[in-house]
Specification:
This protein is α/β, with parallel strands linked by helices and 180 residues long. It has a single domain, classed as 3-Layer(aba) Sandwich (Rossmann fold). The protein is 35% helix and 19% strand. The strands form 2 sheets. The chain has a 6-stranded mixed β-sheet. The protein has a two-stranded antiparallel sheet with strand order 2-3. α1 packs parallel to α3. The longest helix has 21 residues. The chain starts with 5 loop residues before the first strand and ends in a 5-residue tail after the last strand.
Length: 180
């Protein structure tokens, strides 16, 4: 297997030549395609897959965090807000059914920071501020009880430091093995 970066993001499937277009129908189709792509990628990796579900409110920095990660054979990132247990359950089930390890990375960003980042996006990618507030209000941090093998929580800023925090205890990273 090559050192290709594998990322699944439903928002990518909403892109058109005119920009991102969201409708309930397009969104449902994008999620269905992502679930199918996840199952197929796990099958293609022949039992050597590790799924890293990257969650957090819109504007948290999920996509940017993924971009700082080096490509690793067999690692596949699923990039979406996924605020609740019910939102993550199908991804966990697909990973487990395919024999893949499943980890969560929660990009835990303050609401004010996420709103500011969102405001700086191109107009077609701006998420309504009320939607971000709603997701923040309902966000349930991932837990091992959901079926994750490992959970990492990244807090604080700046984004550039997150990559280095993996090796430094207490530097914006909590691991499930450290009691969280």
């Amino acid at each position: 297997m090559t050192n290709r970066m594998w990322t699944i993001n439903p928002d990518d499937l909403l892109e058109t030549p005119e920009g991102r277009i969201w409708t309930p129908e397009r969104n449902a189709a994008a999620w269905a395609q992502c679930y199918a792509a996840l199952a197929q990628a796990i099958t293609d990796m022949a039992g050597d897959a590790r799924v890293i579900l990257v969650c957090g409110i819109q504007g948290a920095g999920k996509t940017s965090w993924i971009a700082t990660q080096p490509p690793v054979p067999g690692v596949l990132y699923f990039d979406a807000a996924l605020p609740g247990i019910r939102h993550r359950a199908k991804i966990i089930a697909i990973a487990r059914d395919g024999g893949a390890a499943i980890e969560a990375v929660w990009i835990d960003t303050p609401l004010a920071t996420a709103l500011a980042r969102n405001a700086g996006r191109s107009p077609d990618k701006v998420v309504p501020a009320d939607a971000i507030r709603s997701v923040a209000a309902q966000f349930e941090g991932p837990s091992l009880a959901e079926g994750f093998d490992r959970i990492r929580v990244y807090t604080g800023e700046p984004l550039a430091l997150w990559q280095d925090s993996v090796a430094q205890s207490g530097s914006g990273l909590r691991s499930s093995s450290e009691g969280s």
